[in-house]
Amino acid sequence: MVDGVRVTTQIRTGIDVALRHGFREGLVAMDWLLGRHPRANIEFEIRKLGRRRGIGVARAALAHAVSNVRSPYESYARALLIEAGIGPIRVNVRVGRYEVDLLIGERVVVEIDGAVKYDGKTYGRTDEMLRKEREREKHLLNSAYHVRRYNPLELLSHPDRFVAEVRLAHEISQPPASPEHHQPQR
């Protein structure tokens, strides 16, 4: 009870999001929960619900959840890629001297840029932020990474395009399947 109103716990609310809204939103909720609660506590609450509609989705969302996400849109992007079978996906990992939002496989960097990054207040002057971002991207590109940048609206409005572009980048970043590809033609 809060001010006389019945409410659910954070964990139950996160599980309910997965039960009612599906894997994408469920992963967003589970990532958020893992940043605040032990995985075992969330698993316990899911088990308490027994068999019910959507419980498999809640379990799957928790199975893919990580605790180091900094944005709900990073979680949403991961959910799209997981549904498409693209991976492995690492979250907020260091690549050289920089940290990237998502690293797909070994060479594909996916950045989710919110508008707040360029608002001129939160992270400093817009021109300075753009200069730093360009320097960072240049370093990644010159280090043979494939960099893809998206904003939240693109993820929500064109999820299929996002998945297709990341899939293509991931495919072209892979080494050839066999040594014959390296043989000079005669």
From TrEMBL:
* Superkingdom, natural source: Bacteria
Provide the protein name.
DUF559 domain-containing protein
Annotated source species: Corynebacterium lipophiloflavum (strain ATCC 700352 / DSM 44291 / CCUG 37336 / JCM 10383 / DMMZ 1944)
